[in-house]
Amino acid sequence: MxxxxxxxxxxxxxxxxxxxxxxxxxxxxxxxxxxxxxDPVPAAASKPAFxxxxxxxxxxxxxxxxxxxxxxxxxxxxRIALGDVSSASHxxxxxxxxxxxxxxxxxxxxxxxxxxxxxxxxxxGGCVGKLRSRKKSEGTGTDFPSxxxxxxxxxxxxxxxxxxxxxxLLTDGQMDVTGxxxxxxxxxxxxxxxRQLDRxxxxxxxxxxxxxxxxxGPDPDKDQLDRMAxxxxxxxxxxxxxxxxxxxxVSGAKDLGAKLEKIFAAAHCLRYQPGTSPQLxxxxxxxxxxxxxxxGSIVVDKxxxxxxxxxxxxxxxxxxxxxxxxxxHFELAGAGDxxxxxxxxxxxxxxxxxxxxxxxxxxxxxxxVSVLWQGELRGAITMDPPSPQAGQKATVTMRLQxxxxxxxxxxxxxAGLRVRSELTGDGFAAVPVQLTDDGKGPDPTASDGSxxxxxxxxHSADGALKVSGTLTASGLSADTRSESGLVAPDVLPxxxxxxxxxxxxxxGDEVTxxxxxxxxxxxxxxxxxSVADLQPGLVSVSPAEIELKPQESGxxxxxxxxxxxxxxxxxxxxxxLKLGGxxxxxxxxxxxxxxxxxxxxxxxxxxxGLWDAYWWAFLIAAAVLAAVVAAVLAWLRQRRGRRDPxxxxxxLVSEDGDVVATHPAGHGHKQWYEFAVVEPHRSPRIERRxxxxxxxxxxxxxxxxxxxxxxxxxxxxxxxxxxxxxxLSLSLGEETRSAKSRRNRPTWGAxxxxxxxxxxPTVTTEDDGTSTYESYR
Length: 777
Hints:
By secondary structure, this protein is α+β, with helices and mostly antiparallel strands.
């Protein structure tokens, strides 16, 4: 059906770099609607739009706060401010407790409204450091109404109401205004506090301010926190439940920063991804950035300002902390503070390394890393056939892509997506289309990023058709796409089918497919071919046009050529990139009616290296070398086995020719089995003795060789005898061991018949009373 021309990818697999990618946080509702086939899609032409937010952080400063809790609150406030990816966002930070005398105040402003551009982000650490735990003489209560009133004022005064307004409320306790004179008579202060809290929550809802409470400490009032979350504005950055304000409890101060980052991501429609567990410096930690990310902030909680951080991208390059490197732009903030963040526009996807170093005396506190990011998701939608007839069933497919046109290979990148589709047109009401990626029904493969469904064109359809898709995803923005067509007459003048293989190829290679076409009309028609849904320069198609004669039917070759390696840049690693464009053929003679719209799926891998190109030669050479080594080892084993005395039956023969003793020989030392003749005059017998007077070795020609200390070697024929001392002779009896068992000497780690690996040797005793390791169980 198609071929790949050029340098082919070899058969081995490549190890993935291991980016950790988990869908989390809030969500954004987007629609995927494709442009007309003749409109090219400049997938990376426009700069990504970073969603901004106006938010305030209210930090509990009450006297009940432990010193570690205040340190954690400061770090948490700095982490979310530095982690914001939009330079248009604004943040305000203030502390609060309760005013219990005329010279006290409930709210303690520390960071005025600050734009989170480069200068603003760099100043956050200093002003957050002004947060403090109040002394008992400065007020011990917790005034939630005043904190909410301050936050709503900061967020609603002089700000754009179309920009989300979010108040984060960090507290370790419960509302307590019993010591505050502003709440009236002491007997009624608690009730008045409740009334004022209700009033401030209604005002927050009216001003469009979300409230996200975060409780920590030994006993935060979860019911009251839930009440504040539900009392504020309820419409978040998306309609997904994850963006609905909710209260959270933190198990301990050390988890406060990570939990706040997580709810900040939910409120801000960002993605949050923790890195490897915190470690003491010097250490190298890792954090993954998704291929969908267009901007992200790697946030490092150093705990100690003296810790220095180095950032390494997935290709092993140390990146700058300011300025541009290749296609990415970098901006570091907070380098001299306990929390710093590296903002990256157009980051290289994959696993980033964060190296932490510190001088002596500053290595006792752990360093943690996380990433907050926004991304873009594009889609390509097709309807097959492009111009169906009324009553005909059509297949609708929507493929998820990155903004550069690459297919998304890891299902974790789009886990939990909500996909909706509908068919609209002339002569009928909208028809819903169910699209799934579960490998059932019309969907051919599960979890491949292609959502497929089928729809029957209503019989009343009599004109234009349009199929559209809607995707709900957290932290992502996307294009609007649709596939338009016309209800086809009973007989179309030109029809066709394009088949392109799912191919593996290298930059510069060609992928060929076949276009089967039929012109049933009486006039010539011209088909124009093009590629859509891909960044320009990645792929081209030829021929650009095909002329069809009247009544012509046949098969045409279509060639897709990949761009050079430079077109793919740093995105091309050993794991490869999967292109996901669309090849379209329109009939220019028939008002650019779509004849074919076919998905393109090509996995692009780097140019093969020496191993990749000649792996077969290396394997052949290794096999030959292994065969030679095996032959030499076999020859040595055979040579050793032919001399091994194991299995020889030694016999002592008297002067009368009687056999007076027998003894089975063992393996011996260097193929010599050493022994001695004991009690030759009373009860002659053979015993194994290291450095004994005699030694015997099997002869490859048959029989054996007998060695006597100080007397050299003597040949012992299989049916003969050799005289020893004291009137005794030595002869060979019948062997009691087979040749196979003679060659199979036991070794440590030998496998038993059950397939288990033995580890404990079992000792067996031979006839001569000596012990040898014969088997292992």
